[in-house]
Every structure is written in structure tokens, then in C-alpha cells.
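FW: tagging you since you asked about this chain on Friday. Here's the raw sequence from the shared folder, copied in full. Didn't touch anything.
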Amino acid sequence: MTSAAHAPILLNDNQLQSFLRSGYLTVDAGLPAAFHTRLHGQIQHLFATDGNPGNDILPLVPDLHQVLTQPRVHGALTSLLGPDYLLHPHRHCHLNPAGSDGQRLHQDSYEADQNVRHHRLRWLLAFYYPQDVDANRGPSAIVPATQYLTRSDRPAAADELPLQGRAGTVTIVHYDLWHRAMANVGTQDRFMVKFLFTRVCEPREPSWCHDGTPWPSTGRADDVLCASLWDWICGAAVDGGPVARVSGPDDGLVEDLVEGLGSSDESERHRAAYRLGGMDASGAEALLAALRLEGQQRLQPNIERAHTNPVQFDAAYGLTAAGVVAVPALTKLLADEIWWLRASAADVLGDIGLYTEEGVQALTTSLKDPSEWVRRNAVEALGNIGPPAGCARNALALCLADPDDAVRYNAALALAKITSGDRVALQAAQCDSNRYVRELATEALARG
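HL: got it, structure written out here
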């Protein structure tokens, strides 16, 4: 994506740290006003003649590529997702017509999938305005620092921030940030083009202008969570050690933190999980026990909730932070008789993203699990591990024929991340009934 004319302008430490806390960043595409006026006219014409083009907005308005390759936009995406990030085949132009009432605050569902809402930075949205947008024209609004909260702690609209700006404004947000379209009380329609991006390679080193700055401790409730994410995105987890380790445990600390996992406040549950994950093996053992209890309490509500992976558990975040300390027990859990424990183990191993021979072998075996949720999570896990999981390519290729859409979708994405796979199976997947499977198979073929 990089060219001499479009060398990325990377973020600095302060900008990256701000994103981890707030979940958003706004930049100017840096193109002349006439460019955006022309794109705005093309989009208006499309809607007037053929209606919303959906995923075809990019091929029908190809100059949108220029927005995505501009130095500040490309540089921000590179900084946050690494230089090899992938433009997802889902993109959409959102019309907010004059006189609309707006939307309710929401988190986007994952296209063709039901992913666990992970904290680590692997998915982003980008909102582009082709026209000037003020508070009256129905801007998109976000609630900063809510990307780590699920529906159990729905944020209030009173805390929202309208995304106003001139034509060419691009706001990049963590995929799970709460947002909505506000009421358009003006006389003109508002258009916003939304793009999805995903990380392809796990971070091995900083991909922004990093000067070695550690995470700045501020005493805020989210410090331990953000410090863990900071260490991970800096590449500190490459060797498998826990990130954002806390000092030696005081008497009773483990018990106190386990109690915190049951708090009614989601942020407090996260703090407890990450502190346990930053301890020695005793923290990981406590988290594994808490995972079993949490699953018994939350599994059915998760199943009943739309767009939710059944293993959306808080204890899993701490196990991810624990890193290699937790891997042997999680690998063993892949053979548990309880399906949701197997599914959770696969999910956490994928969020850790580390290669171990035993882990990859067990995850590969899990691709044949009778539970579609275990298969779905195991496929994603192998994709996150990336090229070191190359021995699973043939097994992943077989998953391209799985009866479950999410399994096939994640298999195509995993093969795009691992690179090089069964070309015959990928070519066959280009005829899949699911559009995203077809397009991600094409991406995997191009990257292989």
C-alpha cells in the first residue's frame, strides 16, 4: 500500500497511548477540497440512481482509495495495526438523511461472524466524510474510552462526542467503540463511508515512532489494562512472558482480585483480571478456576444475546495477559469434555497469539471438534499465530468446506494471515455462497 508519494506519517507515543485509552483518532486526509466535492457528487448520484451500493462503494467510487493511502491515514493504520494490515471486504456508505432521528448507541457486529470482543488491537473502523459535517447535520458520535465495555455496562448518550469536521475528515476507531449516527436536524443529507481493517501479523516491534517510552501510570482505573495492551503492541509478548506484571503479591491479594472478578462494575472486573494475569502461576491458576465459574453463570445469557460469541468471559482477558504461563493449561483444556471450555481455551490461545508445538497441534485437532464454536475459535487462533502455524494449512483448507459460515470465513482469513495454502481449496472458496468467504479467499490467494 505504501508508495514514495504516500509514505506513511506514523503516530508518536502520545498519540498511540491516547488511542489505547480513548479508542479513537481523527486525521485530515490532506486532499484538496475539490477532490472531496467530486466524491460527494459521485456518491449522491449513486444513491439517487441505484440506491446504496453497499460493499460495491469502493469499486464504484475508486478514488476512495486515495483517501485510504494518504500519508496520515495510512500512517495511522500502519501504526495501530502494523504495516501489513488488511482492508476488509466489508465497507459501506452510511446515509443520514435530513430530518432523521438518529440511532441508538451500539457496537458494530462483526461481519459474517460472532467474534469475542477482544481488547488487543486487531480490528479498526475508519469513518470518512466527503462533505463538511457540523452538529446539525447528523454527525457520527462516539463515546470515548468505551471500547472495552460490553452491553452489560452500556454507556450513556450524555457522554458522547459528535465527530464534526470539514470534508476529508477521517476518524479511526477501535472496532468495539460505542457509537451512533446523531439526529440530522439540518436540511442536507449526510454521507459517511465506513471501512474495516484488520491486523495480519502479531506485533513483534513498535510500528509507530516509538522512543522507548513506558506506559505512563496515571492512577486511572484503566492503567493496568492499557499498560498490558501497550506492552503487547510494543512486541513485549513475542517471547511469551506476561505483560504489565504487577509487583509481588501481598497476603490475600489473589483472593481479593478473584473477588473483584465478580464485581458488578465491568472496569473493576477487567482490572482484577489483568492484575491476576500479571502475576506468577498463582494468578493464572486463579483465573482458570474463575473461568469455569464465570462460564456457568454467563454462558446462557451469552447464547441468548445476538452477535455474541458464547465465551465472552472477563477471566479470559487475564489469561491472555498471563501469556505463556497459561498456555499449557489452556492447551489441556482443549480436550475438556465441556464444549464451552474448549471454545474458551481456543479463543484465549488465539488472543495470546503465541506458537507452541503442543498448542498448534491441539488447535489443529480442534478444527474437527463437533462444536462449531470450538472450530470457529480454533481457526481464528491459528490465524493469529500466523506463519509459525503453517503446519495447519491443510487442515485449515478443509475448514473452507465447513457447514458453518463463521468457520469458513475465519478459515479464509486465517490462510490470508498464514500465507501460502491449498490453492485448489482457496480457488473453490471463491465460489462460496458467503461473499466475505469468497473475497477473503481471493485475498489469501493474492498473499500466498
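FW: Confidence is low (pLDDT under 50) at residues 1-5.
HL: agreed, and The domain at 4-198 is CATH 2.60.120.620 (Jelly Rolls).
FW: great, closing this out.
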